[in-house]
Design goal:
The two termini are 22 Å apart. Strand 9, helix 7 and strand 10 form a beta-alpha-beta unit. The chain folds into 2 domains: 195 residues, Rossmann fold (3-Layer(aba) Sandwich), CATH 3.40.50.2000; 163 residues, Glycogen Phosphorylase B (Rossmann fold). With 388 residues, it is an alpha/beta fold. It contains 12 helices and 13 strands. The chain has a 7-stranded parallel beta sheet with strand order 3-2-1-4-5-6-7, with helices on both faces. It has a 6-stranded parallel beta sheet with strand order 10-9-8-11-12-13, with helices on both faces.
Length: 388
């Protein structure tokens, strides 16, 4: 009798807590959307269990989206109550060859518990356990030890950078579980730019991302104020939303640069690329990153970056050639930016930025992820054959 699972797409499933909207400005959500949009073309059949409030505008037709009960935002401890029964149902119905998780705390406990509930994780069952793959960006400061323990129980962990891998190794995750697959960058057509977004003449500085403490957006304002004191003409656009927005407006006024800072709030994806196409430099002060997708995006448009030392962002650009590293304070950032005030130097860095960013390719990333999924499934059940 022929194998009924032969030569069909690989079925990958799991619960979801991220928004998957095309205009998301959160790095992890961008990663997921770009990856999941490409996997179906690689013969990966996706089933996504989404909590009720998380709607997906115009999901690709290749996705199977199923509604799950809502999980209160921030209450990841409640997630297994909603997600684990769903995972068990998927496995008991034979609807998943592999389980994937995009968030360690929101997904990993549910995947592990759901697999156990389905009776597929124990040695007394004839059916091999369905592999679990977790995608990792960075450990959180508060829950890092717990996240590392959960990651160590997966069958594989996809790390988005060498920095992320090294962080996991330092936290005790076995090296044999970790596969580094560098993410890509979207490349929409060139826009007409948006120079009018900047409120004053001089260098057009851009800060883009969620306005929260770990992103340290205040460094961009401090750097602008330091440049102003040095007599370097510049203005700043801050694009993003978050709890620090009121504080940033107050800080800019207190430092005497309120009229040189434009707080745009969250911008649409198309407007984000218009900003890149007009910016002279990206300021990236984040203190906790697994990769730094905003840096990679800016580099792809030829925008030099000034980034804070100490994170994985050094893998998203070529420090000293396509951008500059600086200590996380306004004066250090201003010193780096003063180098970019020289137009020939800025043009040279812009060219180097475009060249460096060519390595970030979503199609390659998706192909490597799909290959890993197949490798794990075939190892768990050698009789299975899937469309390549």
């Amino acid at each position: 009798m022929s194998d009924p699972s032969a030569d069909r797409p690989l079925r990958v499933a799991g619960p979801y807590f991220y928004r998957l909207a095309p205009d998301s400005d959160i790095g992890g959500e961008v990663y997921e959307r770009m990856l999941l949009e490409r996997l179906p073309s690689l013969a990966i059949a996706l089933t996504l269990g989404l909590p009720r409030p998380l709607q997906v505008p115009d999901p690709p037709s290749e996705w199977t989206v199923e509604e799950l009960p809502a999980v209160p935002a921030g209450h990841w401890l409640a997630a297994p109550l909603r997600f684990a029964p769903y995972v068990a149902r998927l496995l008991r119905a034979g609807r998943a060859d592999l389980l994937r998780g995009h968030s360690v705390r929101y997904c990993a406990p549910s995947l592990l518990l759901g697999r156990a509930l389905a009776g597929r994780g124990g040695g007394t069952h004839a059916t091999p356990p369905v592999p679990i793959v977790l995608h990792h960006h960075h450990l959180t400061e508060r829950w890092g030890a717990l996240e590392a323990r959960l990651l160590a129980r997966a069958d594989a962990v996809v790390a988005v950078s060498v920095h992320a891998r090294d962080e996991l190794l330092g936290a005790g995750v076995p090296e044999r579980l970790i596969r580094v697959i560098v993410q890509g960058v979207a490349r929409p057509p060139a826009t007409g730019g948006w120079p009018a977004a900047w409120p004053d003449a001089g260098l057009r500085l851009l800060s883009l991302g969620r306005l929260e403490p770990r992103k340290r957006p205040q460094l961009a304002i401090d750097a602008l104020a330091a440049l102003h004191r040095r007599g370097v003409a510049a203005s700043l656009v801050i694009a993003g939303a978050g709890p620090l927005s009121p504080e940033l407006a107050t800080r800019a006024r207190a430092l005497g640069v309120g009229d040189r800072v434009a707080l745009l709030g969250r911008v649409a994806d198309a407007d984000k690329w218009r900003l890149y196409d007009s910016a002279d430099a990206l300021l990236f002060g984040s203190g906790l990153e697994g990769f730094g997708v905003v840096i990679a995006e800016a580099q792809s448009r030829g925008v030099p970056v000034v980034a804070a030392t100490g994170t994985a962002t050094v893998e998203a650009f070529d420090p000293g050639r396509s951008g500059l590293l600086a200590a996380p304070d306004g004066e250090a950032f201003a010193t780096a930016l003063a180098r970019l005030a020289d137009e020939p130097a800025r043009r040279a860095m812009s060219a180097a930025a475009r060249e460096f960013a060519a390595r970030f390719d979503w199609d390659r990333c998706a192909a490597e992820v799909a290959a890993l999924y197949r490798e794990l499934v075939l190892a768990s059940g050698p009789h299975r054959r899937f469309v390549a």
